[in-house]
Amino acid sequence: MQTLLKNIKSCTICEPNLLLGARPVVIAHPESKIVIIGQAPGTKVHASGIPWDDASGKQLRKWLNVSTDKFYNPENFAIIPMGFCYPGKGKTGDLPPRPECAPKWHELLFNELNKVELVLLIGMYAQNYYLGKSAKKTLTETVKNYNHYLPKFFPLPHPSPRNRFWLTKNPWFETNTIPVLQQLVKHIIYNS
Asked: Gene3D superfamilies recorded for this chain (predicted)?
């Protein structure tokens, strides 16, 4: 696992396409129980090298009901984005994750993760990649039907502050879905 992580962190496969250059961000351990698959690092995470080290990460930890220490303990959570580097800015936010990362590295990482009990699929890119044809037509439908993907996957919207409108429009997410997620995470972290 250490060699694989070193190889990922030194990867420059898509560097010519990255405005800020390559700085792959990943956390994993052979004992990781939960895998978080998000989109790609933003500029703050690119600068710090710490995944989810921003407002989105704060919201995600709140959704999971875990402390920062529990979150960054790689025996609890592996953090494997769809794109390991900041992809750059687009017209309406960050560009999509680079397409090279997941096919090159995800399977190799999962081959080393022997204790995974749950995979959190955050956002449409992760959901489409891992759920394929079983993903619903919209992210909202996929998230609303999270129980169809259990026990392996749990789809989530992105916890970005930009998603306030989605959260306001879909109050069922915080009242119905988050408590189920928190119970699962608590059970996995404390009882495994």
From this structure: Uracil-DNA glycosylase-like domain (3.40.470.10)
User: Is residue 69 classed exposed, middle or buried when 0-12, 13-18 and 19+ CB atoms within 10 A define those classes?
Assistant: exposed
Identity at 177, one-letter amino acid code: T
Helices (H), 30-145: 43-48, 55-64, 68-71, 101, 107-112, 124-131, 139-144
DSSP state of 97: P
Average pLDDT on 85-95 reads: 89
In sequence order, what DSSP letters do the residues of 39-53 get, joined into one string?
S---HHHHHH--TT-
- Report the alpha-carbon distance of residue 125 to residue 90 in Å, rounded: 16
pLDDT confidence tier of residue 67, bands split at 50, 70 and 90: very high
